[in-house]
């Protein structure tokens, strides 16, 4: 049975709207590293806490007084996460959703992969969500290449996911109680960089990026979400990247 208290570590581009969405059904605590966000968080009927992975204070134990923890911060501070795990093991947290990245698939020495493994070694129920490149709501790939910066590997397929799907997937994991899993979370369409970035620019009236004319066949890996779709019976909200409106 899913209980009703969730702590969300990280209140940025994904964490804040995630907390907003979950607060419709759960009691939510949300961490931030600055008091400037407190009023904004409280306005959503969410309880704010100051938590900094680089310097965990006494607030962390109150923040972890929940049933489920969602970890959604970009930090790769391994020592900080080791300290965080100590606090988690002394808390009421029973289940964890850890937001990771598909970047770990191509780098076995990634600090993020090491952090994933730290959590896997605990006796907690944890589901790791490896998100692809994050897009939507201000994150338009056509903006990734300012001032004439050249796009390389133009024929390589893109692996992306919209924020709406990220939030929906996290919600599904929690509501369905799907834990002790690792999922790659990637939109099922994979246009080339040239196709997708050109589309992103045109639909947003932005300059079309400059594309490298040299052919590079080295990076054509498509990451699929087959296990996610199977286990969660998941249907993507934005399943065609070439139809996304920015």
Automatic annotation (TrEMBL):
SUPFAM superfamilies, alphabetized: NAD(P)-binding Rossmann-fold domains
Domain of life: Bacteria
One Gene Ontology term of the molecular function aspect: aldehyde dehydrogenase (NAD+) activity
Gene Ontology, cellular component aspect: cytoplasm
Identification of the protein by name: dTDP-glucose 4,6-dehydratase
Organism: Candidatus Marinarcus aquaticus
């Amino acid at each position: 049975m899913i209980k009703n208290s969730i702590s969300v570590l990280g209140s940025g581009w994904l964490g804040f709207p995630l907390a907003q969405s979950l607060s419709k059904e759960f009691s939510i605590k949300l961490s931030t590293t600055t008091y400037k966000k407190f009023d904004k968080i409280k306005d959503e009927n969410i309880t704010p806490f100051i938590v900094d992975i680089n310097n965990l204070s006494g607030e962390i134990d109150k923040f972890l007084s929940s049933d489920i923890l969602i970890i959604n911060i970009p930090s790769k501070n391994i020592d900080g996460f080791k300290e965080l795990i100590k606090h988690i093991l002394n808390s009421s947290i029973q289940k964890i959703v850890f937001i990771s990245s598909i970047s770990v698939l191509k780098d076995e020495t990634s600090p993020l992969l090491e952090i994933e493994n730290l959590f896997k070694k605990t006796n907690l129920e944890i589901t790791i969500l490896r998100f692809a490149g994050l897009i939507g709501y201000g994150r338009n790939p056509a903006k990734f290449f300012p001032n004439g910066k050249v796009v390389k590997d133009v024929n390589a397929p893109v692996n992306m996911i919209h924020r709406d799907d990220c939030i929906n997937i996290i919600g599904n994991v929690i509501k369905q109680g799907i834990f002790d899993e690792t999922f790659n979370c990637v939109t099922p369409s994979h246009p080339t960089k040239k196709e997708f970035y050109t589309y992103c620019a045109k639909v947003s009236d932005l300059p079309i990026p400059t594309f490298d004319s040299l052919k590079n066949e080295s990076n054509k890996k498509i990451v699929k979400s087959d296990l996610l779709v199977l286990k969660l019976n998941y249907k993507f909200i934005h399943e065609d990247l070439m139809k996304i409106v920015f």
